[in-house]
Amino acid sequence: MNTIWFPDLTNTSVPKYQIIVDAIRSGISNGQLEEGEKLPPVREVAWHLGITPGTVARAFSQLVDAGVLEATVGRGTFVAKQRAVAQVQDWPEVVSLKSPKLPDVGQIEAVRSALRKISHMQDGLLMGYPNAKTDLPAREAVLEWSAGKLLGRTTPDDVVLTYGGQNAITLILQTVLKGAAPVVLAEDLTYAGFRHAARLQRAKIVGLASDEYGVRPGALDAACRAHDAQIFCTSPEVHNPTAHRTGLERRKALADVAQHHGVQILEDDCYALRDSDLPSYRALLPRQTWYVSSISKLLTPSLRLGYAIAPSPRAAELRRTAQYSFFGIATPLTELTAELLSSPNIADLNRAMQDQIAALVQVAVNGLGSYDLRWRPDVPFLWLSLPNGWRAGSFCSAAERAGVLIRSADDFTLMEDRAPHAVRIAVNGQVDIKCFEAAIGRLRGLLDKPPSEIEV
């Protein structure tokens, strides 16, 4: 029995099944486990490692779903052909924690399977321009996929497919903004994509003060009065970069202000990985809210598939904007999306991704939790307020010299506002989890030893 790949399960906060997953992947990449090699039975592995068979079975099952292993009833579990193995870079010199990088929990094989199925799509679909009829299955699929969100009454006619969430934001601003000098409102600390999209429309973006409950209603009201604003861009479910969630009472108060002034709301929900128990602005203010999401943060960013749900009376306007911009999403992509989101395994993939992200977040919390850290297990990034002695820019530079890339608060601050001394740290599921743990350890080392010299 080949036991050379067996991992050390002592002195680690990482879930044991994940360590086994990483050990098998590593064993395959370094040649300790060869293609077609039979792995020991689950009970034998469990006995040697001193853990329960269920833990080993979970690891094996995840790797089978990902195409790394193959299981045959009555024969056992074998290392799959290498073409089916996801390429995971182990221990790179520089670990990027700037943007979340999803682990493969089976979505690579799911995409490949969907690609194989749509390769037999009708000839007519491959030879014609996309239209409302050809992309209807994908629009229906994204609504079904979003069923756990409290979006109010929606129909496929309200949905406009886009090339990612950022494209949806830009299309909405193109649809809504009017006049020579339009004004866009957003949190004073906000997703940079709002700023970039506003700039493309030659719009001025004005920051709004926030507190621990979200944007202050008084700040929104004052800005609406002072600037004749047309749209308020916000992410109530997962604020980027702080991971804050806006509560129900604050959502209602902000919706009331927007309704009073006739201001539209752009609700970016791309980072919300789980179903929500709170109504969206789309539900609270359905005639003024434009909802945006995508499959990038939970399945894969490679397909660039996003969507916007328009207020029902204005869906035709948004559809025209999209049509005038790119005629429609490529039919093979909409067919792939419909196939992928309709898969009977999609719910399991979503849960597996959520579990993996929660495990990675916990690793980061274990390393950095003694500092001022904002985090949630269902959000793939953490917000770290730096201790005395560190500024965001100098900390990011020091982290880069240590081989870790992170984002400064400056990246999320509007031009006229002052950035806090804070950084955003994203999870990276595409490196060995011990490599991720080591990267967090390097950041902890910097926090423990702030600069002692004053720069002049």
TrEMBL record:
Domain of life where this protein originates: Bacteria
InterPro entries: Aminotransferase_I/II_large, HTH_trans_reg/aminotransferase, PyrdxlP-dep_Trfase, PyrdxlP-dep_Trfase_major, Tscrpt_reg_HTH_GntR, WH-like_DNA-bd_sf, WH_DNA-bd_sf
GO MF entries: DNA binding; DNA-binding transcription factor activity; pyridoxal phosphate binding
UniProtKB keywords: DNA-binding, Pyridoxal phosphate, Transcription, Transcription regulation
Family annotation (CDD domains): AAT_like, WHTH_GntR
Every HTH gntR-type domain range: 14-82
Assigned protein family: In the C-terminal section; belongs to the class-I pyridoxal-phosphate-dependent aminotransferase family.
Protein name per Swiss-Prot or TrEMBL: GntR family transcriptional regulator
Taxon lineage: Bacteria, Pseudomonadati, Pseudomonadota, Alphaproteobacteria, Rhodobacterales
